[in-house]
Amino acid sequence: MQSLLYSFPTLFYIGIFLVSFFISVIIIPSIIHVAQKRHLYDDLGHFRKQHDHGIPRLGGVAIFVSFTISSLMFGMIDKSLPINYLLTSCIILFAMGLKNDLSGVNSNTKFVIQIVAASIVVLLGNIRIDNLFGAFGVHEIGYLLSSLLSIILLVLIVNAFNLIDGIDGLAATTGIIVNGTFGILFICMHQYQLSAVSLCMVGAILGFLKFNLSPAKIFMGDTGAMLIGFISGIMAFKFMELNKLTTDSNFIFHSSPLIALAILIGPIFDTFRVFVIRIYSGISPFTADRNHLHHRLLALGLNHIQSTLIISICNLICILLVLLFQNYSAYFLITVIVLIPIFINLIVALTIRLRSRSNTAFEKLLYKQMD
After folding, report:
1. Mean pLDDT over residues 4-8, rounded?
2. Distances (CA, A) of 221 to 167, 274, 286
């Protein structure tokens, strides 16, 4: 199979994507049928829900099955990624996510299981951040600190993807952008196994997205969102690891931590922003609200597809700019990465405030005329 890969790499990558895509597309109609027959619907009574009819939350099952099958079929060529530990952690997250989507899981239990899954790939699979690339004057870091930092960051990324899964298509589109970008970068670096895993995830999500675009027929639930976040975090760690300045590197992307941050900036920035707002307001950062960017875009009158497109385009612009200017200073790149989402959020906030003032002024004028 190695010789086949080197002879027909483009066809092979296309094949990986298509297998994953069609498995997902074939599975989802059956999942929808079973969910409707067994009344396995979304929680309509929750104040953050955007739909007025029952929709299954089991789309993550199709993403998991498609990703697992295609990864086992195409992901065993080399040792750049310990696929056994990766899939073990994915199965753990899948079991917990499925339980949560069907009957709910205590938040503390959820965090413990996420830490266990992250610990398996970090401690046993040795997938971790062991170099800060000069940030704060630090390069190589010790094993214990490296492992702890990697586990915390991986759990953060998992939950960041879970938090943006609030409107039709957003988490799925973000997952496609993130893993598609990493897949292309790994292909440029001649990292077959990593690019194969990324493309498996892209195909699985795209097959699901066909049924998740507004009006959605199915949601991915925690099962899908956590799996996408987990694989996205693993790909980010491996991308940074392989782009350290070493003599045996096949391809070097400069400022790899900042490139990884730009790729993941959508869910990470939104999570950081709502956490800061909640803490500043004196409430728990884990308290659910409607203050995410996608909720605020809906408040402006945009629909799900329009909101998803705006957020996705901003993410793509950020990725493109950082890749184009990767040789510039870290301060310049950080400024670019941070200013883009800040600018978008400021525009949205100002528009909401102006619209609110306009409505208030109109109401006062109306009441005055009635008097």
Report:
1. 48
2. 11, 20, 18
